[in-house]
Amino acid sequence: MIAKAPAARGPPFYGKYQMIEKSMLKDAERIVRVVMVTILLTAGTSKFFSHSGFFEYYSMLFQGDLRIRLPEFLINAYLQLIPYMEIGLGLALFSNRYKRLAMYAWFAFMLSLLVGHYILQEWSSVNQMLDYFFLGLLCFVLPNHRSWFRRDAQHASTDNPVSN
Fold first, then answer.
1. What is the C-alpha separation between 114 and 127, in angstroms, rounded?
2. d(Cα 133, Cα 139) in Å, to the nearest integer?
3. Which of 53, 94, 112, 125 can bridge 117 by disulfide, Cβ–Cβ 3.0-4.6 Å?
4. Runs of H (alpha helix) within 7-145
């Protein structure tokens, strides 16, 4: 009797294309989401501990000689809300149930920051904001594990997009 060699571990091949296992995509999503949560929680808490430095700095910049002028009360109200939105959104991203809603909030919040940097004519910051959109897009399209504390069991029938 000739023993068969064990099957090679790794992503399966379908035709000439190599497929990425669904569990690996879920692991990647978890890493991306942890990065997003860390960014938001760090940014929010640093603003709370800046002793109004964040607010005063950006409030002064928005009152400068700009092409687009917004009312001071509107700018100041939004600047006061930003740390709360960052903390809230960072915590919301922990939820698997509300992931899609939190992702839409991520895009809206990042768009608001992009517009703010555009108004301030900080072109390099506008370009750097695109990285956050791509990070959000990656998290948006990747599947996620059902729990933060364990990996979903692999099932060949659900991980194989070709079979059914």
1. 9
2. 10
3. 125
4. 22-48, 53-62, 72-92, 99-119, 123-141
For the chain, first and last CA: distance in Å?
A: 33
Look at residues 90, 108, 104, 98 and name the one whose alpha carbon lies nearest to residue 47.
90
141 burial (CB, 10 Å; 0-12 / 13-18 / 19+) is exposed
CB 21 within 8 A of CB 29: no
Contacts of 19 (CB under 8 A, 6+ apart): 11, 12, 13, 160, 161
Residue 93: how many CB atoms within 10 A of its CB?
A: 24
Q: Read off the pTM.
A: 0.77
Predicted confidence (pLDDT) per residue in 87-102, tens digit? 999 999 999 889 999 9
Q: Cα separation of 83 and 49, whole Å?
A: 10
Contact 47, 88 (CB under 8 A): no
